[in-house]
Amino acid sequence: MIRTQIQLEPATYEQMKRRATEMRCSVSELARQSIEEKLQRQNQADKWQVSLTVLGRYGSGLGDLSENHDKYLTDGW
């Protein structure tokens, strides 16, 4: 691990201490878990954002695709 230092507001630190005690872990472990969770959520949000950019970009040429998507999917397999 790489050692680093952060500064927290006193109220935030107290909340972290209480939560770490509840979870039976150190404040450092809680901070690591929280940072990792935040990064994972951001990565997921980034993936969704990229996915949303293709919506409506391509056409099937089928006028009834939204109504008969199951039929077209079955025919393709």
Key terms:
77 residues, mainly alpha, single chain, 68% helix, 3 helices
Q: Please give the radius of gyration in angstroms.
A: 23 Å
Quaternary organization: single chain
Number of strands: 0
Number of helices: 3
Helix content: 55-70%
Sheet having the most strands: none
Which parts are unreliable, with pLDDT below 50 for 5 consecutive residues or more?
none
Structural class based on helices, strands and sheet pairing: mainly alpha
The secondary-structure element order is HHH
Average pLDDT value? 90
Strand content: under 5%
Shape: elongated
How widely separated are the two ends? 49 Å
Short recap of the structure:
The protein is mostly helical. It has three helices and no strands. 68% of the residues lie in helices and 0% in strands.
Describe the protein's architecture and organization.
Helix content is 68%, strand content 0%. The protein has 77 residues and is mainly alpha-helical. The N and C termini lie far apart (49 Å). The protein has a domain at 10-49.
